[in-house]
Amino acid sequence: MNDRLDETLETERAPARRVLAVAGWVLARSIAIIGLLVAWEWLARSGTVTPFVLPKFTAVIERIWNDALAGDLLINTGATLFRAIVGFVIAAIGGVVLAMAMSRVAAVNWLFDPIISVGFPMPKVAFLPVVILWLGLYDVSKISMVVLDAIFPVVTATLVGIKGVEREVIWSARNMGAKDHELMWQIVLPAALPQIMTGLQVALPIALIVAIVTEMMMGGYGLGGGMMTASRFADSRGVFAGIVEIAVVGFCLVKGMAILRRRLLLWHQEAMEPSTV
Amino acid sequence: MTRALLRYLPLVLIALLWEAASRLGLVSSLALPPLSNVIEAWIDLIRSGELFTNGLSSIYRGAAGLLLAIVIGAALGIFMAWWRPLNVVLSPLVELFYPMPKSALIPVTVSWLGFGDGSKILLIFLGCMLPVTVGAFNGARSSEQVLVWSARSMGASRMRMLWDVVVPSAMPELLNGIRTALALSFILLVSSELIVARQGFGYLIGSLGANGSYEAMFAVVLTVAFLGFAADRAYQLVMQRLLRWRQ
Questions:
Q1: What ipTM does this complex have?
Q2: B194 interface with A at CB cutoff 8 Å
Q3: pTM of this prediction?
């Protein structure tokens, strides 16, 4: 609310003052992050902790830069993103289709409802050794783990969304002669889109977490694998470089998803409301 | 009773299918040991006390980390909603670290605190704190202005208002945040123990798998999965009780 008000006020102010106001806002927002980085650098330089426990921030950045020049950064980030996003897309499509089938066909619902409600709260990472046993150490088993973990929030959110579609909307579509599949694609799915997007927004960070955990356990290329290798060689800079890289990738993915949501739901009233994330 | 049975029949069917598939040799019994053998191995693990000692240390780590996360995370979230400057300074940090996969911190917590309990508790605390903070913040921020005003006009002090108005209205979202944290704590616990530990469920799964005793490994995996499910169901019951005042 306040932001919107500020914006309208902003446009009426003189340009110079507007620039000042924006600069002040950016400074206030970034002061904590800058403070954290300065504190990190200062603590590492002060000598109270060994470089193994906490390497200098500048050294970590230098390491990331070198990795980027050598091409390792691109390979590792690419491998992790590939697994996380392929798994996420499979989970997203599979989850929405499964939820559609569950809401239409009673038998499918009967079969999957207990599996979903029991499987959702389970820590699926525990099944990792079993999946390794079945599918080996490479991409297939990593992506399967991502799908296994990310599909549950999509299915439950889609089910909630489909159930919440107003009956009046469905009735009037029927009245105007919509066929079953038209009803599903043109009425029910768009109306359930806010909830589906929420489910996807939950599933995406999960996909990234699982991709990184599986890489940590199985090794090989990828941000998680690279970190574990660095950790085995007591290469502290490499470990912290991995953390920074993973934090940046996670931040970009989540922000991108939030932007996608705003674009897809421009027609929805929620686009008018202020958003937190 | 019969309705519950009918509802959970698919799970029974899966169990029967599992048993049949490995008994009839449709899949190698190495890849999928028969369920009855898994149950036997489970009873052996209980008899030898291995499941119990490892489980106890896992539960201790999870509970300690989660408790710390709930107390500190909830206090932080409520104060961020209560005092604007704190929000302006801290919310960029929360936004930056919230989407970060906390499992990336496993190697660091180990190099800081070693292979024992400390590193797992720190990891679970760090991983579970932000969902609680965000829940508490969103809940406290949405406390109705009318309630705050009427409390103030009736002469409530700032502390009293915080305790009697803001905290209760933050409750529903806070409790939801804790539910997310509960699920995360299991994930972080098991994955950190699978990667580096000398005790705990994850360690037991890893070492049994490495020894090739897959029946016992399946038994521990199913135990952990069941505990995660049971913890969530138990928490939902607690949540319903705590929120009864909301109709």
A1: 0.78
A2: yes
A3: 0.83
